[in-house]
Amino acid sequence: MNDLALPRPTARDVACGIVLGLDPAAPAPIAVPSRAPAPLVALEHAVLPALRRPPCLVSFSGGLDSSLVLAIAARVARREGLPDPVPVTWRFTGAPRAEESPWQDQIIAELGLAREWQILQAGEDLDLVGPVARRLLTRYGPMHPPNLHVHLPIIELARGGSLLTGAGGDQILAGWRRRPATLRMRLGLLRARWLRPQPDLFPWLHSRVSRQLRQALRAEQRAEPHRLAGRIAWHLRRRDLAMTRAGLAAVASDHDVLAVHPLVDDGFAAALAAHRGRLRTPSRRELLADIADAGLPPLVVAPRPKATFDEAFLRAATREFIRSWDGTGVDETLVDVNALRREWSDWPVNSLTAALVQHLWLAGHRAGRQPTVEAPR
Asked: 3-state DSSP call for residue 163?
C-alpha cells in the first residue's frame, strides 16, 4: 500500500487518543448468506493462505483471540500436511500486569508447538518512543493504534512468509456493549450513572472539546448494534479497525509478508453472522463456547484474566520525553497545554495520551530536535 494512501489519525484522534466514526471508504456490509459453513470451518479457510506461505508466524500473546487463531492454524496445518505455524510471543520485564506466561505455556504445550515457539524479550524496547517505535514512526509517520510497533520485529522475522494475528477480536467477538448478568446488576449500573459524577475522560483538552468528545463517544457506544450480525457489520466499517488493518498491511508489504487477520475475514464474519447473528449482545466467552467444536482443546477458549500492557509501553524513553517537552507541537485549538503538563506531571501518564506522545516526538524528530534512528531492516 502506498504510504500516502494510509488512513491517518486526525488531529482530534491524536488529541483524545480514541478513534471514532465509520470509514467512508469502507465497503458495503457483507451480505449474510442463507447457507454458510460453521464459523470454525470459515476460520480454517481464513488461515489457509497464510499457512501456504511459510514461514507462517502467529502473533501469540496467550489471550483468547490469539490462542484461537493459533489453535486453528495448528489444526489446519497438520491436516493439510503444511509446516506448523510458528508462535511468536513478547515477554516483558518490569510489567507484571502484562504477564500471561502461565497461559502461554499451557496452550503451547496443549498444541504441541514448543519446538517452534519463539519468545522475544522486551525491557525498554517497546516504549511508545523507544527504539522499535521510532523506526516505525520515522518510516511511516503517525499510525493507529500507538502500539502497532509491537508487530514490527515479528514481521521482520516473517520476511518472505506470512503473519497471522488476532486483530479485531475485541470488536467482532466482544464489542463495546456489556450485558449485565442479572437484573440487580443492571439496576446497580443505572443507579451509579445517576448518582456518581462522571469523570472527565480528557482533562488535558479544552473543556468545550472534552465535552463534545464525551458526547461523541457516548453516542458511538450507543450506536453499536445489539444483535451480533449488526455488531459485526458495524465494527468492520469503523475507522479504528480500518487504520489497524491498513497499517499492518503496509508494514507487512514492505517486508514481503502476507498479513492475515482471520477474525475479521469476510468469510468468517459472514459465517458467524449467519449462524449466530441473532444473538443479542453476546460476550466473547459465550461466543467462543458456542462455536467451539470437540476438536478444539477446551483450554484454548477457557476464561482467563485479560492482561493490560500500559507498563510495557510507558517506560524511560516516554518519561524522559514528557519531562523535556517544551510545550510546542500540539493543536492548541484542542489541547490545553497547561492541562496537558499537569496530566503528565504524574506517572504513569494516561494511556489515552499515547498518540500525543508519539505525535510530539515525531514532530520534534522532523524538526531536528530528536535523534535520528535507523530505518527498518
From this structure: strand
Q: Which pLDDT belongs to residue 188?
A: 56
Q: What is the dihedral of CA 102, 104, 109, 115, to 10 degrees?
A: -130
**19: containing domain:** 3-180+203-366
The CATH number given to whatever domain includes residue 31 is: 3.40.50.620
| 195 assigned to some structural domain | no
- Domain count within the chain: 1
Residue 171 in any domain: the answer is: yes
Sequence-distant (6+) residues with CB within 8 A of 351 are 17, 310, 313, 314
Paired residues of 97 in beta bridges? none
**Which regions of the chain are under pLDDT 70?**
1-4, 178-198, 370-377
Q: Is the pTM of this model over 0.85?
A: yes
Exposure class string for 344-365: b at 16+ Cβ within 10 A, else e: beeeebbbbbbbbbbbbbbebb
* pLDDT digits 0-9 by tens, 91-120: 999 998 888 999 999 999 999 999 999 999
Which amino acid, 99? E
pLDDT in tens, 277-312: 999 999 998 899 888 988 899 999 998 888 889 999
User: Is residue 55 a contact partner of residue 95, using CB atoms and an 8 Å limit?
Assistant: no
**Quick check: 48 and 31 in contact, CB under 8 A?**
no
Q: What are 16's three cell numbers? A: 483524545
Instruction: Provide the CB-side half-sphere exposure for 39 (13 A, CA).
Output: 22
Rg (CA), the chain: 21
- Amino acid occupying residue 281: T
Give the model's pLDDT for residue 178: 64
The answer to whether position 190 is within a domain reads no
Amino acid at 149: H
Q: Which grid cell is 21?
A: 466514526
**Is 188 part of any domain?**
no
Within the chain, what is the greatest distance between any pair of CA atoms? 61
